[in-house]
Amino acid sequence: MKGLPLLILTIFLFSCQTLPLINSPVSPADEKALTCPSPFLKEKCRLVHAIETRVSGKTQSAIIGITLADPSTRFVFCAIMTAEGMVLFEAESGPGTLKITRSLPPFDSADFAKNMIEDIKLIFFAPEGKIQKKGNLPDGAAVCRYLEENGDWIDVITDKSEGTAIKRYSSAGILKRQVKFNKTTGNIYQSIELQANETFNYSLLMTLIEVQPVGSE
User: Fold this and answer.
1) 3-state secondary structure the chain
2) Closest Cα to residue 168, out of 19, 7, 49, 66?
3) Rounded distance, CA 76 to CA 118, Å?
4) Other C-beta atoms lying within 10 Å of the C-beta of residue 153
5) 167: nearest Cα among 190, 206, 141, 140
6) pTM score
7) In angstroms, rounded to a whole number, what is the distance separating the alpha carbons of residues 76 and 117?
8) Residue 69 forms beta bridges with which residues?
9) At the top level of CATH, which class does the domain 4-213 belong to?
10) Domains of the chain by residue range
11) How many other CB atoms are found less than 10 A from the CB of residue 176?
């Protein structure tokens, strides 16, 4: 039993090695000049995406996703429908609230709504946590690392050739989500790929159909 805490600590430290090393700027001036990537919404918007779900590299379904997101209040409304217009899922979330108004199979599992809302917030809202470190990854990409209240780590990364990405790690340093914005010019939300690491891995490819700012209501 005496060795158990040491074993747990060893496992924890090993897990944390999945968090990539951030090289600090060489001088305080360089650190001050480093601007954190910010691919996030600046105003309330309604976005419509065509979404392909991929498992093991194969497209499983093609659906339409509608998102209403307000970064100032962190309010999210989302809906999923078929290409024919049948609503399969509908929910909304504000700070500390989640309301599901429609959930048909296969979108009716207990954790689906919560995970979907969290994914939308990851894509469109700036992290709520505090910046812990900023600098460059070993490949030269600029990165800012945030620590969320629940212990998760969020890296927001930008690279001149690869574009912008967001990676979410568990408190133990295990990669849970990665978001890649595939367009380096034009509307950054034109093409988004979300990779989820779950019991079975899957990815969503989101292609923008329409985006519209929404005025105060």
Assistant:
1) CCCHHHHHHHHHHHHHCCCCCCECCCCHHHHHHCCCCCCCCCCCEEEEEEEEEEECCEEEEEEEEEEEEECCCCEEEEEEECCCCCEEEEEEEECCEEEEEEECCCCCCCCHHHHHHHHHHHHHCCCCCEEEEEEECCCCCEEEEEECCCCCEEEEEEECCCEEEEEEECCCCCEEEEEEECCCCCCCCCEEEEEECCCCCEEEEEEEEEEEECCCC
2) 19
3) 10
4) 24
5) 141
6) 0.86
7) 7
8) 45, 76
9) mainly beta
10) 4-213
11) 16
Total residues found in the chain within this entry? 217
Phi and psi torsions of 32, nearest 5°: -65, -35
Radius of gyration, CA atoms only, the chain: 19
Q: Quick one: tokens of 51?
A: 């979404």
> Which residues does 133 contact at the CB level (< 8 Å), separation at least 6?
22, 24, 144, 145
Output the six-digit token pair for 35.
Answer: 């601007």
pLDDT score of 216: 56
Q: Do 155 and 147 form a contact (C-beta atoms < 8 A)? A: no
Q: pLDDT digit of tens for each residue in the chain (217 aa)?
A: 444 443 443 344 344 448 999 998 877 777 777 889 999 999 999 999 999 988 766 777 789 999 999 999 999 999 999 989 999 999 999 988 999 999 999 899 878 999 999 999 999 999 999 999 999 998 889 999 999 999 999 999 998 777 899 999 999 999 999 999 997 678 999 999 999 987 778 899 999 999 999 985 5
- Write the CB contacts of 204 (distance below 8 Å, at least 6 apart in sequence): 51, 52, 53, 54, 192, 193, 194, 196
Note whether 67 and 49 are within 8 A (CB): yes
